[in-house]
Amino acid sequence: MGDSSDSVSVDMETISVAGKEHLVKTGRGYVSVAVFGDQDKPALITYPDLALNYMSCFQGVFYCPEAFSLLLHNFCIYHICPPGHELGAAVMSLDDPVLSVDDLADQIVEVLDYFRLGKVMCMGVTAGAYILTLFAIKYTQRVMGLVLVSPLCKSPSWTEWLCNKVMTNLLYFCGMCTLVKELLLLRYFSKEVRGSVEVPESDVVQACRRLLGERQSPNVLRLLEAINERPDITQGLRKLKCRSLIFVGESSPFHSEALHMTSKLDRRFSALVEVQACGSMVTEEQPDAMLIPLEYFLMGFGFYRPSQCNVSPRSPLSPTSISPELFSPESMGLKLKPIKTRFSEEV
């Protein structure tokens, strides 16, 4: 990155990034888990949105050098794939159980037990955020904190229900056809990156379109049906004992749902970050927008950026940008009180 004042250098040799795929047998079928990093470190588990896996949902944020150094230095990453969504997945057998969202949440605790994990940090996107929130409500003692991107907590609106039904029928009769891909891309991304007649779609949308073409339609159909039958978990949000950080793109179809969810969480332990000109998948469309809120959030748990990295001047963990007052409880912001941050690419 040359000598840019906004650059960050990461010594890749000092961080273990070799991932290993595990196929974990649970009481509700097999789950694929990709593990990255030192398993002696605290665990961060991820769960992607509908029709995605960790490569298509979290690659942007984990390939951002600053976020990479922050997360891989502090955590071992466990990327959990929904059944049948892993790389190279075969078509699920008719004998495989049809799972509800409760079943998917219960699978997570079996994954944690398999790896002998205690409390974990969670990061999920939209449908994955719903499943991790449900998991946190059911197993409060297993969750350290929640990082939720464009999350869901209510039952589907009529608009979402109808759209999902259209996709269900298309997947059943036509497979992962062009129209299904377009509906999913509308779910994930803002119009700014989806392009138009005059402006070509961005590289991230093109890559996601290719990856969607690799999904097995019957497997996506199963998850879609589970998500479309999800119950409202709003009342359970008050049971959460962990801190929560919510990101949502202002162009996300689920923007109002994220605002609703924030209003129902304990305001002492939750925060909302709205990202301008961004769709639901902030992790891919604007991953840089997540860095500073994530750093403040993780500071509340005692996590920090590795000292061997040249920290960007934008970083709140840069020694030159931390004043003693920031360490007072009242000034921790994301740690103790809700805030609303508008992030735009011009900032």
UniProtKB/TrEMBL annotation:
Listed Gene3D superfamilies: alpha/beta hydrolase (3.40.50.1820)
Residue ranges of the TM segments: none
The organism's place on the tree of life at top rank: Eukaryota
Pfam families: Ndr
Protein family: Belongs to the NDRG family.
Name of the featured protein: Pollen specific protein sf21
Organism: Solanum stoloniferum
Lineage, highest ranks first: Eukaryota, Viridiplantae, Streptophyta, Embryophyta, Tracheophyta
